[in-house]
UniProtKB/TrEMBL annotation, chain B:
Its main location: membrane. Keywords: Cell membrane, Membrane, Transmembrane, Transmembrane helix, Transport. It comes from Nonomuraea soli. Residues 110-300 form the ABC transmembrane type-1 domain. It is found in: Cell membrane. This is Peptide/nickel transport system permease protein. It comes from the Bacteria.
Length: 502, 316
């Protein structure tokens, strides 16, 4: 294994090195770095040109310039840009914003996309399947920048305006309820009657829920409260058990329910800790949660200890997430007032000079990152859903799945244990490939939403024919892509025993 | 979905089996694919509309306005197209702030975007097929060199390298731009073709050809490539669809098509500031990009099903 990773790492480094050569040379050749000065007529034109040529080493041939850049890079120096600013410093500021965006988009797209893909595979040729297929095709054909501008214009500005009087229209409630009903109906297997029942139930529940939110003006001052947290936690405990362990076994179910109960009980106690926490504190709490859940699973799991620990941890994480969300939502009204009632931001990655407690600051980043992430995930979500659907269908038609069914395993076990695990193997390769696409997409979205991120750095650098910032961007993103590729290869080899590491 | 086995005719005598060639089977399956047919019809309609309305090259079009002529701005430049009752009006897509007819501009943009995408598809396919076939057939050093080059190219996100070559070539017209873009987005296809060639070259008929002393070039072009034609055609179609999106994205960033040339992405970029006052300047190019890309994607999907009916079981 170690030999394999070392070898893979060496190859990756060389591949990345070769890619930097291509990028550097092409950027340097992409235009005239003195173009703007040539058009000037001022008396110090020659001087400015001389200064810039000297700073960018323009009188040295490009290959030597590349080697100088590479030499500096090895010592950790990313060079200076055209105006003499240290690129390392610019990168440091830009990195956080872009990484947040890219990571959030990738993780969300994977989660949602794979779930949707599997569901549509399990309900092949249903209305749901056809709708997902069509939606995926539309998403493949959407120009990202166009979508981003649309979101900015209609979702952000529209939502902000609507938030002044957060009452949902009756027509909207009806339409959304019917859509939700159709979704549930399409997802239900079995007779027409069963489908009708789930359609009606889905529509009614959605309608009631929306009317409730609308009449209590929930959107103006959102929050969950202990009761709702408890209900959702218990529901997810049952759901997670049904998915990962099967409801007929007591041990895992008790462990998950205990985790949910304990989490909800702690929510009332923890109030003080959560008023103004820091990220390390929250991380500590998260580790604690996992530890407690492991203990719960171990203690209550009985014979099914492993499944119990899994379900307890997942339930614990969901509950922790709910408590976090609740705290975040409680800060919403105050934040919204500070933003003069227009909380969803359309420009930048955070409000300049904004000060506040932890929740307000987090909310500030969240409202800024929301729209770009939405634009970004839509497209990679489509990719993930298509691939996971195809891969899942392929696995479901294999002989061993038939065998599993024939020996009388419950459908849950067949899908989760036998099909899902094998179906996800090809997705690991997609992960690395898609990551490169998301980075390209980030450049476009950052430009639409006016982020001062790495995409902006790349764009400005390329516009000015200035290799240093372009290369800084590429070293980070290319490095990330290479690492992602390597991880994908390793996971692949680990998951698929047919692949030999040599 | 469609029958891949020989179909029985409705002859009164009963079971007469009609023999069909591979090509006929593929064509039949493709023409029975509803989504692909819809895509094909829509795409053809857009192409005909774009090229005849404002004219192309020496040929004039039937549309009354040109894409460079300015005019009086009527009614703030709002679109006059109404669907019910249907009427086109003077400026169906509206006008920009100097009174240019937006329909003419968008049609001109569609023409140029389509041309760039087609060129990118052709160039990328040729290069990718060449590299993939050579790497797959010759193995050893040729393969190592070519596939390492492919690996390196794949490490660079498409949009970055496209933006850079766009910055280089954008000012020299759309043909150079299409050529340059095609020269950098071939690696995916090269990998695909290589994989296919690798499995084909071990087959008996290739061995037989080699045994009777056929030259490599003849084996590649006569025996191997015709068998990879399916995946090549499909992948060309999908490359063209993504090329439309890539071209519009880099034009939006300002590195693609430069004025006086017009492309759909460049129109969106140019009129981005008008989003609040003249939203239609933003709507139309976007809708056309989606229409064209979507119909090409559907055609590609239909072609894939037609060439590879085994997959029908797995993917709709």
């Amino acid at each position: 294994m170690i030999a394999f990773i070392t070898r893979r790492l060496m190859i990756s480094v060389f591949v990345l090195l070769a890619a930097t050569i291509i990028m550097y040379v092409m950027t340097a050749l992409s235009g005239d770095p003195l173009a703007d000065l040539r058009q000037q007529t001022g008396p110090n034109r020659e001087d400015q040109m001389r200064v810039r040529s000297e700073r960018m080493n323009l009188d040295v041939p490009i290959p030597i310039r590349y080697l100088q850049w590479l030499g500096a890079l090895i010592t950790g120096d990313l060079g200076v840009n055209r105006d003499g600013q240290d690129v390392g410093v610019i990168l440091g500021n830009a990195l956080a914003a872009t990484l947040q965006l890219v990571v959030a988009a990738t993780v969300l797209a994977m989660l949602i996309g794979i779930t949707v893909g599997i569901l549509s595979a399990l309900r092949q040729y249903s209305g749901f399947d056809y709708s997902v297929t069509f939606a995926a095709f539309v998403a493949f054909s959407l120009p990202l920048f166009w979508l981003a501008v649309m979101l900015k214009q209609y979702v952000a500005i529209g939502f902000n305006t609507w938030l002044r009087d957060p009452v949902i229209d009756t027509t909207v409630i009806v339409v959304v309820a019917i859509a939700a009903g159709l979704l549930w109906g399409a997802l239900t297997a079995g007779s027409t009657q069963a489908r009708l029942i789930s359609f009606t139930l889905g529509a009614l529940v959605t309608a009631t829920f929306l009317s409730f939110l609308s009449s209590t003006r929930w959107f103006a001052d959102p929050g969950l409260g202990t009761v709702v947290i408890g209900l959702i936690a218990v529901a997810s405990a049952v759901g997670i058990c049904a998915l990962f362990a099967g409801l007929q076994y007591r041990g895992p179910l008790y462990a998950a329910l205990a985790a949910a109960g304990l989490g909800t009980a702690l929510h009332t106690v923890l109030g003080g800790v959560l008023t103004d926490p820091t990220w390390p504190q929250l991380l500590g709490l998260l580790v604690l949660t996992v530890g407690v859940c492991v203990a719960l699973g171990y203690g209550l799991g009985g014979l099914l200890r492993r499944q119990a620990i899994t379900t307890a941890i997942l339930t614990g994480l969901v509950t922790a997430g709910l408590i976090f969300l609740d705290a975040l939502l409680s800060a919403f009204q105050a934040y919204s007032q500070r933003m003069r009632g227009r909380p969803i931001a359309t420009i930048g990655s955070n409000t300049p000079n904004f000060r506040g407690d932890f929740w307000q600051l987090t909310l500030d980043s969240a409202t800024h990152i929301m729209l770009p992430t939405m634009a970004l995930i839509l497209i990679s979500m489509a990719t993930y859903s298509r691939y996971s659907r195809a891969s899942m269908l392929e696995v479901m038609n294999q002989d061993y799945v038939r065998t599993a069914r024939a020996k009388g395993l419950p459908e849950r076990t067949v899908i989760v244990k036998h099909a899902f695990r094998n179906g996800m193997i090809p997705i690991t390769t997609l992960m690395a490939f898609d990551f490169a696409g998301v980075i390209g997409g980030a450049v476009v979205t950052e430009s639409v939403f006016g982020w001062k991120g790495m995409g902006q750095m790349f764009r400005d650098g390329l516009e000015m024919v200035d290799p240093a910032p372009v290369m800084a961007f590429f070293v980070v993103t290319g490095g990330a892509i290479v690492v992602f590729n390597m991880i994908a290869d390793i996971i692949y080899a680990y998951l698929d025993p047919r692949i030999r590491l040599s | 979905m469609t029958l891949s086995a020989p179909v029985t005719s409705g002859d009164a005598q009963g079971m007469t089996i009609v023999a069909r060639t591979q090509g006929q089977l593929v064509r039949r399956r493709f023409f029975q694919h509803k989504a692909a047919m819809t895509g094909l019809v829509v795409l053809l309609a857009v192409v005909v509309l774009a090229f005849t309305s404002v004219g192309f090259g020496p040929f004039g079009g039937w549309w009354k306005h040109g894409w460079t002529t300015t005019g009086r701005v009527i009614d703030g430049g709002a679109p006059t197209l109404t669907l019910w009752p249907f009427s086109i009006g003077e400026h169906p897509f509206g006008q920009d702030n100097v009174g240019k007819d937006y329909f003419a501009l968008v049609m001109r943009g569609t023409q140029q975007s389509l041309l760039v995408a087609l060129l990118v598809g052709l160039v990328a396919t040729s290069v990718g097929t060449f590299v993939g076939a050579a790497a797959g057939y010759f193995r050893r050093r040729t393969e190592t060199a070519l596939m390492r080059l492919t690996d390196v190219m794949i490490t660079i996100p498409v949009l970055l390298i496209a933006a850079i070559v766009g910055r280089m070539a954008g000012g020299s017209g759309i043909l150079v731009l299409g050529l340059a873009l095609g020269l950098v987005i071939w690696p995916q296809l090269a990998r695909l073709v290589r994989g296919e060639v690798l499995s084909l070259r071990e087959r008996e008929f290739i061995e037989a050809a080699r045994a009777i002393g056929t030259r490599p070039r003849r084996i590649i072009f006569k025996h191997i490539l015709p068998n990879t034609l399916g995946i090549i055609i499909v992948s060309t179609t999908l490359t063209i669809a993504s090329a439309i999106l890539v071209e519009s994205a880099i034009s939006f960033l300002g590195f693609g098509v430069q004025p006086p040339d017009i492309s759909l992405g460049q129109l969106i970029s140019f009129y981005q500031g008008a989003m609040l006052t003249r939203p239609w300047l933003f709507w139309w190019p976007g809708i056309l990009i989606i229409t064209v890309a979507l119909s090409i994607n559907f055609i590609g999907d239909g072609l894939r099903d037609a060439f590879d009916p085994r997959q029908n079981r797995v993917r709709a």
